[in-house]
Amino acid sequence: MKIPNTASVSESQRPPIQVYDPTHRDAVDGYVLYPDINSTEELVNMMTASTAYEANMNIFNSSKTLIMRTLELGEG
C-alpha cells in the first residue's frame, strides 16, 4: 500500500509566549519562550484530517467493490 503524500506542513507565524521565570534552566534574561500552540485548534485539525481520510478510504473501497462486481459480470 502506498503511503499518501502530505499536502503541506507550515510553521506557525504566531509569536512565542514569553513567561518570566528566572529560575528556569532555559531562561534568557529571565524569560522563557513557549510555543503559542492552541491544543483545541490542533485537535480539531486532527479530527478533520481523520474524517477526510476515512471518507477517502470509503470512496476507494466502494470503487474497488464496483470494479470487482463489473469484472464478475464479465465472467458470466
Largest sheet: 2 strands, antiparallel
Specify Rg, calculated over alpha carbons.
24 Å
Give start-end ranges of low-pLDDT stretches.
none
Share of β-strand residues: 5-15%
Which whole number gives the mean pLDDT? 90
Strand arrangement, largest sheet? 1-2
Instruction: Please give the domain count.
Output: 1
Q: How would you explain this protein's 3D organization?
A:
The protein is mainly alpha-helical. The protein has one domain. It has one helix and two strands, in the order ββα. The chain has one helix spanning 39-75; strands at 17-20, 31-34. The chain has a two-stranded antiparallel sheet. 0% of the residues are buried. The mean pLDDT is 90.
Topology record:
Elements: E1 17-20, E2 31-34, H1 39-75
Antiparallel strand pairs: 1-2
Briefly summarize what is shown:
The chain is mainly alpha-helical and 76 residues long. It is built from 1 helix and 2 strands. The mean pLDDT is 90.
List keywords for this structure.
76 residues, mainly alpha, 49% helix, 11% strand
